[in-house]
Amino acid sequence: MTTQTPALLIDDASRHYAGTPAPAVDGVTIDVAAGEFLALLGPSGCGKSTLLRMVAGFERLDGGRITVGGRTLSGPATHVPPEERRIGLVFQSYALWPHMTVAGNVAYPLETARVPRAEREQRVRAALDTVGLSGFDARHPAELSGGQRQRVALARCLVMSPELVLLDEPLANLDVHLRAAMEEEFADFHTKTGATMVYVTHDQAEAMALATRIAVLDHGRLAQVAAPRTLYREPATRMVAGFVGQGAVVDGVVTGPAADGRVRVRLFGAEALVRCRTGQPEGQALVCLRPEDLEPAPDGPIAATVVRAAYKGGFVLVEAEPQAAPGVRLLLRVSGDAQVAPGEALRLAVRDGWVVPEGPSQERLTPARE
Ligand SMILES: Nc1ncnc2c1ncn2[C@@H]1O[C@H](COP(=O)(O)OP(=O)(O)OP(=O)(O)O)[C@@H](O)[C@H]1O
Ligand SMILES: [Mg+2]
């Protein structure tokens, strides 16, 4: 990658809470470039908040190191307290002071840092302007919408000009429309400030929309870190394939050597050509099929039955069961004009797909292998 010092380096970091059976964060390594917008994605309990709290300094590490701008903040013999880390924090519960005005809330960290009054006022104005809240200075939090309150919290974080901003599910309290509007604001804010951002969410659409790269955590471990497109098209594990984007992960057999990034696979008794990493071995494999990889075709090689069809506006999302694999559910989209009903027979062609490098599911292999 780059030879520059990463803005944030999480190096083999672990945290095991006392009395719990497994580490909450287990040997995670991620480097975040200056100005990058990294999303931390994963299901509830996978360790996202713990990892963020480790970076912020609220959690000590049980192993590994965290450096910001080349300076070690957490390590075997180091633990810089949170207030000395110069890291901006925005959490889900934005905790504004209810008795203070908007301007008062935003000015608070500057007062704590003994910034002189004139400079303080100027920086508060600039921060409120950045989040689109000029003119709201004298309001109290109770007189604001949820989205506006969230923006005040963002301004309060911005006002310190942090080089690194950590956000933990900052939109989780907001309704769908407000979330969409705030997503744009975060993107704008990121462009305007050039700050390095680490953004925790369990909402993959939010992560896709905002992040330059997404790190997926699975039971405290880093499953994959990649650009949104790569994560969607080339998931490294079954978990990532299932968690990011729609589709199915199915068993197949690679029947020939990889060439030009593709291999032949046998799926439900039919042959298909799908994408794979270089050097994909032959044999049992997991194949990720996104809805756009499957197409109904009169002469398609896979016989299937429609299990469910849901009109989504513009298209119908079809769940289909291959006749050769009862219980497996494939997803595909058909034109909104098409009449598809459960129980109908369907023939499918596989246009594309991806061999998941992780290989067939561990739990269904003989457990004695490792
Ligand atoms: N203070 C704590 N003491 C003990 N265990 C904890 C503590 N905080 C979190 N955990 C456990 O650590 C694991 C990771 O929790 P964490 O809060 O980091 O998950 P998360 O990915 O942020 O989940 P969510 O999406 O629900 O916020 C969970 O199993 C959780 O129960
Ligand atoms: Mg959390």
TrEMBL record:
SUPFAM superfamilies in the cross-refs: MOP-like, P-loop containing nucleoside triphosphate hydrolases
GO molecular function, one term: ATP hydrolysis activity
SMART domains xref list: AAA (SM00382)
UniProt cross-references to Pfam families, sorted A to Z: ABC_tran, TOBE_2
Domain of life: Bacteria
PROSITE patterns the record matches: ABC_TRANSPORTER_1, ABC_TRANSPORTER_2
ABC transporter domain segment(s): 8-244
Record key words, sorted: ATP-binding, Nucleotide-binding, Plasmid, Transport
Any one GO CC term of the record: ATP-binding cassette (ABC) transporter complex
InterPro entries, per the entry: AAA+_ATPase, ABC_SmlMolc_Importer, ABC_transporter-like_ATP-bd, ABC_transporter-like_CS, Mo/tungstate-bd_C_term_dom, P-loop_NTPase, Transp-assoc_OB_typ2
Family: Belongs to the ABC transporter superfamily.
Protein name from the UniProt record: ABC transporter ATP-binding protein
